Amino acid sequence: MTARRLSAGVVVARETDDGARLLLLRAYKDWDFPKGHVEAGEDPLAAAVRETREEAGIVDLEFAWGEDFVETAPYAGNKIARYYVARTRAERVELPISSELGRPEHHEYRWVDLTEAFALTRPRLRPVIAWAAGKIMVVARLA
């Protein structure tokens, strides 16, 4: 059996005039929240903050709902992703060039409402979105 690999990330929420929006990043066809591998000896929350900075250029994170987290079921070679939820005032997202890849890790970003978050992401992320929505009291707007 393959050992579990832990990734950590942040569901980044931003208040807008139209309600809360969540940050999604796209790599190829997959949309996800900023996240990445937790290094040996690294605290998962510190890894989540580091990955958000590295992948989206966001350093303004306020963990207004505490350090609670939710984890996905195992996927892709027994990987588990742990997500925290944080608020930001930052609107601007940067997709910096990864030194390992020589290009940005992600192709695009979007600030989305709950309906779009559910529509764009894989089923394994839907419990994460629902959990985060419960934390930030976001109500999906019906089109």
Describe the structure.
It is built from three helices and seven strands. It has helices at residues 44-56, 114-120, 126-136; strands at residues 5-16, 19-27, 30-32, 35-37, 70-71, 79-87, 108-112. Residues 138-143 have low confidence and may be disordered. The chain has 143 residues and is an alpha+beta fold. It has a single domain (5-93, 106-136), classed as Nucleoside Triphosphate Pyrophosphohydrolase, CATH 3.90.79. Strands 1, 2, 3, 4, 5, 6 and 7 form a seven-stranded mixed beta sheet that branches.
Number of helices: 3
**Structural class of the helix and strand makeup?**
alpha+beta
Distance between the termini: 45 Å
Query: What would the CATH topology be?
Result: Nucleoside Triphosphate Pyrophosphohydrolase
The CATH homologous superfamily is called Nucleoside Triphosphate Pyrophosphohydrolase
Shape assignment: globular
